[in-house]
UniProtKB/TrEMBL annotation:
<feature type="domain" description="4Fe-4S ferredoxin-type">
    <location>
        <begin position="235"/>
        <end position="265"/>
    </location>
</feature>
<feature type="domain" description="4Fe-4S ferredoxin-type">
    <location>
        <begin position="606"/>
        <end position="635"/>
    </location>
</feature>
<dbReference type="InterPro" id="IPR039650">
    <property type="entry name" value="HdrA-like"/>
</dbReference>
<dbReference type="Pfam" id="PF13237">
    <property type="entry name" value="Fer4_10"/>
</dbReference>
<dbReference type="InterPro" id="IPR017900">
    <property type="entry name" value="4Fe4S_Fe_S_CS"/>
</dbReference>
<keyword id="KW-0274">FAD</keyword>
<comment type="similarity">
    <text>Belongs to the HdrA family.</text>
</comment>
<keyword id="KW-0479">Metal-binding</keyword>
<keyword id="KW-0411">Iron-sulfur</keyword>
<dbReference type="GO" id="GO:0016491">
    <property type="term" value="F:oxidoreductase activity"/>
</dbReference>
<keyword id="KW-0408">Iron</keyword>
<dbReference type="GO" id="GO:0051539">
    <property type="term" value="F:4 iron, 4 sulfur cluster binding"/>
</dbReference>
<dbReference type="GO" id="GO:0046872">
    <property type="term" value="F:metal ion binding"/>
</dbReference>
<keyword id="KW-0285">Flavoprotein</keyword>
<keyword id="KW-0004">4Fe-4S</keyword>
<feature type="domain" description="4Fe-4S ferredoxin-type">
    <location>
        <begin position="575"/>
        <end position="604"/>
    </location>
</feature>
<protein>
    <submittedName>
        <fullName>4Fe-4S dicluster domain-containing protein</fullName>
    </submittedName>
</protein>
Length: 649
């Protein structure tokens, strides 16, 4: 088999060329069998770079192309398009990653050049065995699933719905709003959170294009971009949502009233088993908490709620409902959790009264919260001295190494709120003050002028001396160790991935980064797409961020979804696995291993059979099959062996 191969070595500016001798690599490539042209160029991905490839394909009659450049994740599609424009099938291309694998991992020019040579030679050997492949095109279901009804999910859902398409918004809790619904004011403008969030929540509840499923979770996702089939489990609310008017009579009548610590108020208030967490809740319907309800748990209760409900809306016979939904795209907006400050026992959270976390403080300052907006200690008195500690569990090698981005600003907000609501002296302990956003520095300066004591040094410990809370910290500006007695401590804790993030990632077939948040395709250039086509990310499930950034990302995810819907068709990768029925022994090993559940045993033949529409071509099955019956297109044995031979030659 004689091929005519062109080799193109990229400098990537100085990224590659400052370490790898690109000119000698291109020269050497000319001597390899079947290579008819070889060039090096400053930026192969630029228009002139691609132009070289197109022209050479025509002039030299190239039948295969090798590009030695950056990661194929970055530019494989760019070069495939260049080949296609010149009339060559885009899969007759192979890339050698001489940037991430060579110049970026060593400063040793000789070693880097030798490795680049080996990888490029391997690509040349491999490309000979490439076959033309045709991409499949499938039609797109124009409906979108949004998972998570916090501010980012709400934004994404409204935007897709406003564009005229159906949206299913699935929220785990009985109400939408996420963490923003717990706040009173939001930095940097001190907008009332409810004033800006409630209209959006109401719009979601009323929108003709949005089907809102609360108390619901996605249990299974099958299919592929354009055609996902999603199973949603809706837990019973034990209230008929059509009859319930949200009057609250059942809430007042429940025999467990004021006995169960609330999640929404983070234990600062108590509720009954029938409850409505906040007055602006959407949907404004009561819910009965099956973990505590006496009737549901012990089958014994006088059922005062049922007697109180004039609408006869309470229905204890409700069971789990399963919905099957067909959508083309999915937006995940499942948000974050707060780091459990008790895991850092030096701060006394959970041990000492009046040591609270940021969300508890948010509830305290909220007019509809447990203290009707008053900042008070457990004994009901106003504190005279309050300490706010930054970075609890963030920027700390013992817990989370990353910066949680919003805590400097929310700490500054807390300081302002304490000053605004009380006469207390405020001490704020920080490592750095990170006020990077629009109007953030101005807000910080404003609070500085309000007379807050900013102490540069991380709070090291909170102790109790003779019944008095004492914060110990090193003041790095004074160069002195300080012990400050206070009445209340607010721990501004890290934003962390939700406890069930791994389970959610598995259900949707996406990955997580080392810090546990969902992984985006490219941290800078593709922050809302995942490596699973058609599944996008919005808000804090991707990384900690503030409300402006969560809203912007919600819109960006909606735009990605709409761009798929607008074309009506989507190309899906033709790189899939297939089974040679003659060789398959029907051992089922592949069935259990396939992460995308795309393999079944054909009942008639007893052999494995792969659903190509679902298969992602990851190759797990092919690597595991003891009979060698499975092949993955574009990654067959000949291709891989030729590549290995090229590296070792
Ligand atoms: C103490 C504190 C104060 C803050 N103050 C401000 C401020 O003043 N200004 C500001 O800009 N930012 C502030 N922030 C940041 C703000 O909270 C976030 O930017 C914002 O809440 C992110 O929204 P989200 O929709 O991504 O996530 P979330 O608000 O966490 O919402 C996620 C939603 O998804 C739901 N969900 C989770 N898992 C599932 C699942 N598997 N299925 C279905 N639903 C699911 C959750 O129940 C929730 O409703 C503050 C943060 C903290 C901790
Ligand atoms: S269930 Fe009945 S009593 Fe309870 S809020 Fe709804 S209408 Fe009112
Ligand atoms: S390559 Fe195999 S294991 Fe991977 S998705 Fe396809 S069938 Fe499943």
């Amino acid at each position: 088999m004689t091929e005519r191969i062109g080799v193109y070595v990229c400098h990537c500016g100085s990224n590659i060329a400052s370490v790898v001798d690109v000119a000698s690599l291109a020269e050497k490539a000319k001597t390899w069998p079947q290579v008819v042209i070889s060039r090096d160029y400053k930026y192969m991905c630029s228009d002139p770079g691609q132009e070289y490839i197109k022209k050479d394909i025509e002039e030299y009659g190239l039948s295969r192309v090798v590009v030695a450049a950056c990661s194929p994740r970055m530019h494989e599609s760019t070069f495939r398009r260049a080949l296609e424009k010149a009339g060559l099938n885009g899969y007759l291309l192979e890339m050698a990653n001489i940037r991430e694998h060579c110049s970026w991992v060593t400063t040793d020019k000789q070693l880097a050049t030798q490795k680049a040579l080996n990888l490029t030679r391997a690509a040349v050997k491999r490309v000979v065995y490439h076959q033309p492949i045709v991409e499949r095109e499938v039609s797109v279901n124009p409906a979108t699933l949004v998972v998570g009804g916090g501010i980012s999910g709400i934004q994404a859902a409204l935007q897709v719905a406003e564009a005229g398409h159906l949206v299913y918004l699935v929220e785990k809790e009985a109400y939408i709003g996420g963490h923003m619904a717990q706040f009173d004011k939001t930095f940097p403008t001190l907008d009332c959170a409810a004033c800006i969030l409630t209209p959006k929540m109401v719009q979601v509840g009323d929108h003709p294009n949005i089907t809102l499923l609360t108390s619901s979770e996605v249990t299974a996702v099958e299919g592929y971009v354009g055609n996902f089939t999603v199973t949603v489990r809706e837990k019973p609310r034990y209230i008929n949502p059509v009859e319930c008017t949200g009057c609250g009579d059942c809430v007042a009548a429940c025999v467990l009233k004021d006995t169960i610590p609330t999640d929404f108020d983070l234990g600062l208030s108590k509720r009954g088993a029938a409850y409505i967490p906040f007055p602006q809740a959407v949907p404004l319907r009561a819910v009965i908490d099956d973990k505590h309800c006496l009737l549901l748990n012990r089958k014994k209760c006088s059922m005062e709620c049922v007697k109180a409900c004039q609408r006869r809306a309470i229905n204890f016979a409700q069971k789990d409902k399963y919905h099957t939904i067909q959508v083309g795209t999915i937006i995940l907006a499942t948000g974050y959790e707060l780091f459990d400050a008790a895991k850092a026992p030096q701060y006394g959270f959970g041990r000492y009264d009046n040591v609270i976390n940021g969300l508890q403080f948010e509830r305290m300052t909220n007019a509809s919260g447990p203290t009707q907006g008053k900042i008070v200690m457990k004994n009901g008195e106003e504190p005279k001295r309050v300490a706010i500690l930054h970075c609890i569990g963030s920027r700390d090698a013992n817990y989370q190494r990353y910066c949680s981005r919003v805590c400097c600003m929310s700490s500054v907000k807390f300081a302002h709120m304490v000053k605004d609501h009380t006469n207390a002296e405020v001490y704020e302990f920080y490592i750095d003050m990170r006020t990077f956003g629009k109007q953030y520095e101005e807000f910080y300066n404003r609070v500085l002028e309000e007379g807050v004591n900013f102490i540069r040094g991380k709070g090291a410990e909170v102790t109790k001396v003779d019944g008095q809370l004492v914060v110990r910290a090193e003041d790095t500006l004074l160069g002195a160790f300080r012990e400050i007695p206070v009445d209340m401590v607010i721990l501004n804790t890290a934003l962390v991935p939700r406890h069930d993030a791994e389970h959610v990632a598995q259900v949707f077939g996406i990955s997580r980064s080392a810090d546990g948040f969902f992984l985006e395709s490219h941290i800078k250039l593709d922050p809302v797409t995942t490596t699973t086509d058609g599944i996008y990310l919005a808000g804090c499930c991707q990384s900690p961020k503030d409300i402006p950034d969560s809203v912007a990302q919600g819109s960006a995810a909606a735009a990605q979804s709409l761009s798929v819907i607008a074309t009506g068709k989507v190309k899906i990768s033709p790189i899939t696995a297939s089974v040679n029925k003659e060789l398959c022994a029907g051992c089922r090993i592949c069935v259990g291993l396939c992460p995308f559940r795309s393999i079944q045993i054909d009942k008639a033949t007893g052999r494995a059979s792969i659903n190509e529409a679902v298969c992602k071509g990851c190759g797990t099955c092919a690597a595991a099959c003891p009979s060698g019956a499975i092949t993955v297109l574009h990654f067959n044995d000949e291709q891989i062996l030729a590549q290995i031979e090229g590296v070792l030659a």
